[in-house]
Amino acid sequence: MVVFLIDADNLNAPGWIEEACQMLEATEGSVSVRRAYGSAENLKGLADVLSTWAIRPFVNLSLSKNTTDLALAVDAMELACQTPRPTVLAIGSGDADFAPLVVRLRERGIRMICISGRNKMAQEVVHAYDQVVLVGSEKKARHAPHSDMAEPTAPAKKSAAKKTISKKTPAKSTVPKKAAAKKSVEKKSDDAQGLVTIQLILNAAPALKSGEHQALGDIAKSLHDAKLLGKNATSTKLFKKYPDQFELSPVKQPNKVRYIQ
User: Fold this and answer.
1) pLDDT digits (tens, 9 = 90+) for 89-101
2) CB-based contact 49:14 (threshold 8 Å)
3) C-alpha distances out from residue 99 to 16, 79, 119, 120, Å
């Protein structure tokens, strides 16, 4: 049984979750248990991708302290004690707080996978997992040194298929053109992000004009809808370009943003 538990306050971009689900299905097979834990605001911003992949949302209690990590850990331990227990458990978060949980579950014979955004992976916890996969822009898959697992097979099959097509039609192969077109689109997307101004942000998310704290998930969705953010781009990275105009909170794992007038 394969289990995927998502810390939606950490792995909080729709594109990241989409990519993670595709990777797990391609390399591990059907994912039996799919759950996402987070604040109401962040889960609301992920509603579309959660619905697409039939991922059950679990909303945090409304408390002063974030309880997402603990809620996820409790469910992970409960699943590990059930019969049959998971053979693979993937945690969608790069947070170092999960290290004790990962170690205990690995000791019970469960293979542990971490799926994290590139800028959110805590380096000190990398070796606790059997496999670490980074999603998002310029993604790379890394394995802990002690793991004997091979690289995911799905990408290798696709590569082999491309080579076969190129061999059969060397003169007019469309594969390189498609690859070049994809790179061109990605480059244009990156260039467009560099042209995003404060006024464009306010036009796309007018709620910010009030100067009050807004749910980061809602604002991110508005920016994605307005095409101001690429599929795998993060709103936090964009707001950090304007530190004098936008305030993110809390600092470690922001889930709110405020426009400083």
Assistant:
1) 999 999 999 999 9
2) yes
3) 21, 17, 18, 15
